[in-house]
Design goal:
By secondary structure, this protein is of the alpha+beta class. Helices cover 31% and strands 21% of the residues. The protein has a single domain, classed as HIT family, subunit A. It has helices at 4-27, 31-47, 98-104, 106-113, 146-152, 187-192, 198-202, 215-218; strands at residues 55-57, 62-66, 74-78, 122-126, 139-144, 164-168, 171-178, 204-210, 220-226, 240-241. A hairpin with a 7-residue loop joins strand 2 (62-66) and strand 3 (74-78).
Length: 250
C-alpha cells in the first residue's frame, strides 16, 4: 500500500500530466495524435493497459480518451493518422465504422456521471475542419443539452432515410432518422452522398443521438449542417452539454 507521501507524489504526477496536456492542446494542433500515437498505443502494446487513454482497441484501431473539458466528455480517436471529417479515409471501402464504436463508448460518459442515461440524452459530434482545434479525427461523446433533446423529439417518428430541415439551437440543420449507424448508414457516408469532394466535406458537422430512449428500438437521429448553409455554423458541439446537467435531474 502506498504511504501518504507516495500517494501525494502520484496525485501530483497525474495533475502535472493533465496540465501539460491541456497546455499542449492549446498550442499544438497535433496534441491528440501525439497522446494516442506516442503514449496510449505504445502502452497498450507493451503492457496491455491504455496508458493515458481510457481504452485502446488495437484491432479496431481506435482509442477512447477522457477530454480535459467537462465532467463526462470523452473522445474517440483513430490510431491511424486521419485528419478529420474531410479525409477520404473515412469513406474508404473498408473504413472502420467509428460512429458505431463511439456509440458503444457512451458507457464511459455514464460511468463518469455514475448513472445510466436514455439514448436520446447522449450524443456524438464531429466539427468541421474550420471549427476544430485538432488535426486528428476525434468524435466527441457526451450528454445532450436537455432543451435540444426536447426539440429533436419532433423527429423521433420520422420515416427513416430522408432528410428534414429544422432550426435547432439557433442554427439550421438537416435531420435524418436511421435504424443503424453502420455501412451505408454510416453518418460520414450519408453526408458525403451530396458533398462529393474533400472541400465540401470539410465544411460539414455531424451530430448523432438516439431518436428515443432506446436507439436499438427507436433508431438514431443524424444531424448535419455546413458552414455554407444559411444560419449553419460548421459545428454542432453547442448541442452537447459538457456539464451534463441531465445527469443531475431527479
Amino acid at each position: 500500500m502506498l504511504h501518504q507521501g507516495a500517494r501525494w507524489a502520484a496525485a501530483l504526477a497525474v495533475a502535472v500530466a493533465a496540465s501539460a496536456c491541456a497546455r499542449l492542446a492549446t498550442v499544438d494542433s497535433n496534441a491528440l495524435w501525439k497522446i494516442v500515437d506516442m503514449r496510449c498505443v505504445p502502452s497498450q502494446q507493451a503492457t496491455g493497459t491504455p496508458g493515458q487513454c481510457t481504452f485502446v482497441d488495437l484491432d479496431k484501431r481506435y482509442a477512447i480518451l477522457k477530454d480535459i473539458v467537462g465532467r463526462s466528455q470523452h473522445l474517440l480517436i483513430p490510431t491511424d493518422r486521419i485528419t478529420g471529417i474531410e479525409s477520404p479515409l473515412v469513406l474508404a471501402p473498408h473504413a472502420q465504422d467509428y460512429w458505431v464504436d463511439a456509440w458503444d463508448a457512451r458507457r464511459y460518459v455514464e460511468k463518469s456521471v455514475k448513472r445510466s442515461l436514455p439514448d436520446n440524452q447522449l450524443g456524438l459530434e464531429i466539427n468541421s475542419q474550420y471549427r476544430r482545434t485538432q488535426n486528428q479525427l476525434h468524435i466527441h461523446i457526451d450528454c445532450m443539452r436537455g432543451d435540444i433533446s426536447e426539440a429533436l423529439a419532433r423527429h423521433a417518428k420520422d420515416a427513416p432515410d430522408a432528410w428534414h430541415w429544422d432550426t435547432v439551437g439557433g442554427n439550421r440543420y438537416r435531420i435524418m432518422r436511421v435504424t443503424t449507424l453502420a455501412e451505408a448508414s454510416n453518418p460520414f457516408r450519408l453526408v458525403a452522398r451530396d458533398n462529393k469532394d474533400t472541400d465540401a466535406m470539410a465544411n460539414q458537422t455531424i451530430l448523432v443521438t438516439g431518436a428515443g430512449p432506446s436507439a436499438e428500438q427507436d433508431g438514431w437521429l443524424v444531424v448535419n449542417s455546413g458552414i455554407d448553409v444559411d444560419n449553419g455554423s460548421g459545428s454542432a458541439e453547442n448541442l452537447l452539454d459538457h456539464a451534463c446537467h441531465v445527469a443531475d435531474a431527479p
